[in-house]
């Protein structure tokens, strides 16, 4: 069949599209009978890595004839990045479907299949009727700052050629949070005694690390030091890791004689005012247990170069023969 028309080309048109730099956008091609509008982006600024921005798009039939099938399409047309750093928009765009579930759709118009992304969500529009869908845009932490142009389109998904009935643009400012909004993480530690059984682990503790600032922390890590003359050679450390369950973590001695647990495997992004939990297991060989008076674990957390004050905990370790 014929090639699909490109947004902004003759089939899409620009008449009535409004000023794309105006917050909230405008309406496009009223002569075609479908008017589109954005809601929820007025004067809004998105922060890279800080979480999704939710907005709505409405498709309104201004005619006295019914549209049997209208395919809704929303994508980012362009990013006018600042600084010339060569970065681009990364992240995720989702559409809320019936029942409240969210479906991933192509993030940008650079995606070859974005014009087909609304086919499964196509709806009928009776004369004078409207349909509103919600979207959420989640720019990732490595996106460039700049101005996003977001386009919404109304397509008729008929074969052999899709027809763009209407389109509208709106602008969204994308920026990084100021350095003052980035704060050191906070954390709490909870100790638990393992009940033994066939599992060789005898003690575990969890850390809940929270980002109290208004900016995302791109690199959050727990810090774990083992203190005690025999701790490094006798105790092994594992951490919870994805769907794999547990992963063993390397332990090395630092210049102060403490055993440093390598937690680099656990690096995470933590959004503003959100928390993440790390779980650790300590195991000892059969027939050996540390001296409670000399063994301790120094626990801390750091995020983007900012460190929380560490605390000392004393996990209770035992062996099957004890």
Molecular structure report:
The protein has 322 residues and is mainly beta. 1% of the residues lie in helices and 47% in strands. It is built from one helix and 22 strands. The chain has one helix at 231-234; strands at residues 34-39, 45-47, 53-61, 67-81, 91-96, 102-105, 123-125, 130-139, 146-156, 163-175, 186-193, 201-210, 217-227, 236-241, 245-249, 251-253, 259-261, 268-270, 275-283, 296-303, 306-307, 311-313. The strands form four sheets. Strands 13, 16, 17, 18, 20, 21 and 22 form a seven-stranded antiparallel beta sheet that branches. The chain has a five-stranded antiparallel beta sheet with strand order 1-3-8-5-6, with no helix packed on it. Strand 14 and strand 15 form a beta hairpin.
Biggest sheet statistics: 7 strands, antiparallel
Indicate the CATH topology of the largest domain. Immunoglobulin-like
Architecture per CATH nomenclature, i.e. the level-2 architecture of the largest domain: Sandwich
Helical run tally: 1
Strand content: over 45%
Q: What CATH first level of the largest domain would be assigned?
A: Mainly Beta
List SSEs in N-to-C order. Answer: EEEEEEEEEEEEEHEEEEEEEEE
* Morphology call: elongated
Straight-line N-to-C gap: 77 Å
Low-confidence stretches: 1-31
Structural class: mainly beta
Rounded to an integer in angstroms, the radius of gyration calculated over CA atoms is: 27 Å
How many domains? 2
């Amino acid at each position: 069949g014929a090639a699909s028309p490109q947004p902004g080309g003759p089939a899409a048109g620009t008449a009535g599209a409004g000023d794309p730099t105006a917050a909230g956008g405008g309406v496009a091609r009223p002569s075609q009978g479908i008017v589109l509008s954005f809601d929820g982006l007025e004067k809004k600024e998105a922060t890279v890595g800080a979480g999704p921005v939710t907005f709505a798009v409405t498709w309104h039939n201004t005619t006295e004839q019914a549209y049997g099938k209208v395919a809704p399409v929303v994508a980012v047309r362009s990013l006018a990045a600042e600084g010339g750093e060569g970065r681009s928009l990364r992240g995720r765009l989702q559409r809320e479907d019936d029942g409240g579930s969210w479906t991933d759709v192509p993030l940008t118009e650079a995606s070859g299949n974005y014009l087909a992304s609304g086919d499964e969500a196509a709806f009928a529009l009776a004369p004078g009727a409207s349909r509103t869908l919600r979207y959420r845009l989640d720019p990732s932490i490595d996106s460039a700052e700049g101005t996003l142009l977001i386009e919404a389109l109304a397509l008729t998904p008929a074969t052999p050629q899709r027809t763009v009935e209407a389109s509208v643009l709106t602008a969204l400012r994308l920026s990084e949070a100021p350095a003052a909004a980035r704060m050191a993480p906070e954390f709490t530690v909870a100790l638990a005694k393992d009940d033994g059984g066939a599992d060789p682990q005898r003690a575990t503790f969890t850390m809940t690390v929270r980002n109290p600032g208004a900016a995302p922390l791109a690199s959050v890590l727990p810090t774990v030091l083992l203190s005690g003359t025999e701790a490094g050679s006798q105790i092994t450390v594992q951490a919870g890791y994805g769907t794999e369950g547990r992963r063993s973590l390397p332990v090395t001695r630092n210049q102060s004689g403490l055993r440093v647990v390598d937690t680099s495997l656990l690096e995470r992004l933590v959004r503003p005012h959100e928390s993440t939990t790390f779980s650790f297991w300590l195991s000892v060989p059969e027939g050996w247990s540390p001296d409670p008076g000399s063994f301790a674990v120094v626990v801390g957390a750091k995020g983007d170069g900012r460190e929380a004050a560490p605390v000392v905990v004393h996990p209770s370790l035992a062996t099957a023969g004890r």
